[in-house]
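Run log, item B.
One chain of 170 residues. Sequence copied directly from the ordering sheet:
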Amino acid sequence: MSRVLAGAGVEVPAWAIRVALGVVLIAAGALHAGDAWGWLAMSLGALAAASPWVQLAWAAMLSLALSELTQPAGAGTWHPYAVLAAVVLAHVLASRAAITPVRARVELRIFRRPLIVACVIALTSELLLALTLWERGRSHPTWAPATLVAALALLGLGALLFLRLFRRTE
């Protein structure tokens, strides 16, 4: 693989990270432009990209999640999966934008490891989301075992991520 494709030595201005963050959040918010949460996500995404307060990106991600909760969803609809993937990507971009000075230049390889971890998290979360939405679409009076397994798997994933972060801080 060439050095350019591997990202070694390729630099971009740090403001490009903020622009990419704004594009991702505005595009994800546009999926729900019909409700107030979608408009709020687009507004906060634009503010997070254009202002020094990149922390507004997490408020935009929260409004995207709340917007998704207001929509009817099934396992066959693509909106929840697209919003989840956008939120994971926005989290990676926002965390890098928060620690990078705006006038700096950054190498693209700083995104390699976080994107690999984010892809693993996103794929696992997408599978759990599909299972949960499929279970939600079935008619039954009580919780099905598959929903319980999905919830326990999600809690386990969160615990593993927490332990990984806890080890890094020691």
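Observations after the first pass:
- Helices lie at 3-6, 15-30, 36-50, 56-69, 79-99, 112-137, 145-169.
- The beta strands are 11-13, 105-107.
Flagged for discussion on Thursday.
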